[in-house]
Write a structure and sequence with these properties.
single chain, 4 helices, about 70 residues, mainly alpha
Length: about 70
């Protein structure tokens, strides 16, 4: 069990949360016109793999209380 916790902590340390959050912010700016046109986030997310990944990253960042994380 201790090894699993150690591996998980190393994985978090290797993941650049700030860079991913910045990439997701720029992606959100590109998706915003679709959302304003009436497309739902789930419809946009189903059609675009990177949008789904950003939604997941945002949820995990909010859950882990990473600075700069915000819910979509």
């Amino acid at each position: 069990m201790a090894m699993l916790a150690l591996i998980a902590s190393r994985a978090d340390a290797a993941f650049d949360w700030q860079a991913e959050l910045q990439r997701c912010r720029s992606l959100r700016e590109n998706v915003a016109p679709l959302l304003q046109a009436g497309e739902g986030i789930s419809a946009v997310g189903r059609s675009n793999r990177s949008v789904r990944r950003c939604i997941w990253i945002q949820r995990m960042a909010v859950r882990k209380k990473i600075p700069g994380a915000e819910a979509w």
